[in-house]
Each structure stands twice: as structure tokens, then as C-alpha cells.
Amino acid sequence: MVEAWYMDESADDPRRPHRAEPSRPVGLEQLRQLGVLYWKLDADKYENDPELEKIRKERNYSWMDIITICKDKLPNYEEKTKMFYEEHLHLDDEIRYVLDGGGYFDVRDEEDKWIRISMQKGDLITLPAGIYHRFTPDERNYVKAMRLFAGDPVWTAYKRPADHLEARGRYVASLAPTA
Known about the structure:
single chain, 179 residues, alpha+beta, Jelly Rolls, 4 helices
């Protein structure tokens, strides 16, 4: 099951857990309210997993590739991991499935506070278009992940502030309580 929590304010190494003290865990329901979707799958059978295929079909995740984020496999590793950790949003959902290793997605809640989501082997997550977020590997410095897209991949990240973008407006409107 996914593990998530509110972060501390430390500017220390981002690859550390950064749990707020006292601990403030975040459950799946709170993540769902932010538009974050989560599944736990068997990463050892990702090549022939009917459950993964069902999710891909239902959500139209037609494109995929695999990225390995580590010093030996990712050119310009230090530069790329710094870029991944800059707060940004996308115009499309960001879908990642961790096949090995681990890392953290940080997302903003409705009050602009950081929530850290631990991503480990078997975790599949969808971050909605327009949500401010960032990513870092954990202290192992190794993540192998499947990247999924509905349609052709678009890699453009819009650094904060990007509140003028339509995707951001739609996302913020989705957070508003319904009468």
C-alpha cells in the first residue's frame, strides 16, 4: 500500500524521507481528493500483467517506455535529477509505474503544503494534469520506471508559477467542493 506524509521544511538532501514532526500521514482518500490515483501491482510480471493491461485499456494509456534513473544509466544524471526536483506541472497526466528501486513524488495539497508519496517497486501512480509536483530518487539513487501516456508523449514541464495555464485552472476547479 502507498505510504505518504506531510513533509518537514528542511532544505536537507531531497532524497531523504523528510517526514514532518510530529508525523502527519496522508491516506489514499486524501490523495484521491487531490486527483492522485494509485495502484499496487506485481512489478515482476509487468510484461504480461493482465491487471496492468486492464488499467492501460480503461485509461487509454497507449504509449509507454522504461527509464532507469541512476548515475550509470541516465546521461547527465545530476542535472536531470535536479530538473525533476524543480516544482512544475504538466498539461497532461503524469503516469509512472516503479519496476525497481524507489523515489518520492511530492505534490501540493489544497493549502499549498507538500505531501511526499513514497514510490516503491510495484507502485503505479497517476498525477493529474495541472498539479504542482516534483520527483526525486530516494537515497538508493536508483529507480527503474515505466512511463505511460494517453496518446503521444509530451515532456514539457511548466515551472511554477504556471497558474495562467488552462490545465492548472481545470485542476484547481476540480478541488472546489461541490454544492
